[in-house]
Amino acid sequence: METPLSRRTMLKGGAVAAAALTLGGLTTEEARATVDETARSGVFGFGIASGDPTATELLLWTRVTPSPDATPGSGRGRRTRVIWAVAADPGFRKIVRIGTTTTDASRDHTVKVVVSGLTPYTRYYYRFAACGAISGIGRTQTAPDEPGRTHALRLAFVSCSNYTGGYFTAYRGLAARDDLDFVLHLGDYLYEYGNDEDRYGPAELAGVRDHQPATEVVTLADYRLRHALYKTDPDLREAHRRQPWIVVFDDHEITNDAYDTGAENHETQDDPDTSYTGPGQPAGTRPEGDFLARRALAFQAYLEWMPIREPGSWQPQPHQGTQFFRRFSFGDLAELSVIETRQNRSQQVPTTAASTLNPALTDPARHLPEPQQLDWLTRGITGSSKAWHLVGNQTVLTRVYALPRAGVLPGQVFNTDQWDGYQADQRALLDAMAAGRTDPVVLTGDIHSSWANDLPRDTTRYPLDRNSVGVEFVCPSVTSNGFKESLGSAATAQAATAAFQAVNPWVRYLEGIGHGFTVLDVTPARVQADFFFIRSGGDKGLLVDPRLDPQATVGYETSYVSTKGSRQVTGPAGQLGRRSDEPRTASVPRGGWRDVVEFERAAASTR
């Protein structure tokens, strides 16, 4: 979610002045060199990660710097041999899998390996070796997915982590937890904006947390460098090292409010706006080029730098473009369908047209996911025999009406970038939820605030007939501006959220001040969402901005529940306790490498 202002009018006053003073006369190339030197702290300076866990497989990720000139986005550096290993213990005395791969400048020296033949619901440790150096040790685990057995399932979900928006305290809170099966990132992992007139975030952090490259990202080198910058953050690196992640992008990994053929934050040759002058760009130029070419570069960098399986190599389904949607299984307890809603969506439309509600909002020819993906999702829900079907989703699904005020028509929705802007698809999904035997739980990001929603098929009957076909939990942003920042004060934000709930009573909980993450715990009897906010001196943002505090902490806020069969939200509830069971310790297969000395010898051979 962004403010309604165009980026071309988003002058930030003091923030812009501070950024200009900080950058001085640096060219884009000099700024890149500066961040590269700061970021690089050895062969594995950008950290290690794991992702997309199944019962028997894990994906491992890293990025190597084989020589001083092989900086992110540079296109330089030699082809490099990389050894990886998976062990049953953090001391690597019991190595269960080991292998070798190579990387080079064509993929920005990133490394991805899918390790198979592992044991379900088991804790593992991993590391890499290259150029005679050995990485840190990562912790990960396979999915609790065993037929006929019900294990605990607990995950955290996050979204909207803007580097210039504040310190990544929420990631530090995730790294500190020992009770998560995985972290689900629902998009806006990074932001495309620069440090000048399009800077986004508190003015106080200009010159302290600046984006690199200094301008909006457009080229492949830009996107690679921006990904590298985010992975210089120690809290984000530690969260990746300590937990497996499941990730999907939203718009800012490409550019704001992206749709199938363009975006709000993209100028093409047909764009009449010629007023923008970026650093190093003469007035009247259009530096952003063809949108589809730009998007392809963003996808390439995302696939290089994120712990996600290569599209088409796993769970292929009919689709349009590149398939990012996929499904995870957790025994007889739950499934998780991760969807992607930017690549093929129809362009957003205004809420009203000629003083009437815009008929395009209900046009069945307009889509959020492409029809093939929506069919895959609805079939997954209606055909599931598991207790719960979780949906990892980018934008708010439940209907959200605008606050009544001058110029707002009855029935006008709040935001057409959400599912409300694509009401035929919204209806199809709600109908599938009503028809299925499983209880649907939608996990959403994007809107920089915390929600717990019923999902009524017919809002006109609510609350006399709650007719809810599922529930939706929305996580707060990691750092991106919420209601308080957009509206100017905590008091105004609180008044606005209360008014929103009055107009939309199926929104059972709404909080627009806190930043942080949400933990979801799933049992056969219920799902529970615990909301956690970052705090500075105990304050979640009422009086101070905890995003500005590098020593901020994470604290529990509240919980909401949906019991099996109810398809409704209740709460608040008490905080979660311990898991009902724990992942097992890995055993060593016969013939497996058993000693860290063997790995160190192999590492030495990569010099």
TrEMBL record:
Q: Which domain of life is it from?
A: Bacteria
User: Phospholipase D N-terminal domain: which residues?
Assistant: 47-142
SUPFAM superfamilies annotated for this entry?
Metallo-dependent phosphatases
Q: Name one Pfam family in it.
A: PhoD_N
List every stretch annotated Disordered: 262-288, 563-591
Membrane-spanning ranges: none
Record's protein name: Alkaline phosphatase
Name the species this protein comes from: Modestobacter versicolor
